[in-house]
Recover the amino acids of this structure.
């Protein structure tokens, strides 16, 4: 296997990722470079957390729900 590093504009990132993700899994391995200075992924994760409904729950409520679901 060979390794490449791509710099992709936000406007085409989804298209390129979709293409790469649909190649045979045994022939292509996608490795995210989290050392990037682009912190947009953090902003997205924070927004996902805020929108998820967990934002309004206490830690005790979250733990209680997890225990009910998985224990």
């Amino acid at each position: 296997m060979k390794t490449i590093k791509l710099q992709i504009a936000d406007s085409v990132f989804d298209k390129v990722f979709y293409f790469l993700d649909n190649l045979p899994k045994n022939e292509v391995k996608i490795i995210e470079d989290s050392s990037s200075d682009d912190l947009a992924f953090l902003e997205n994760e924070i927004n996902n957390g805020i929108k998820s409904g967990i934002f309004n729950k206490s830690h005790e409520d979250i733990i209680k729900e997890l225990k009910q679901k998985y224990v």
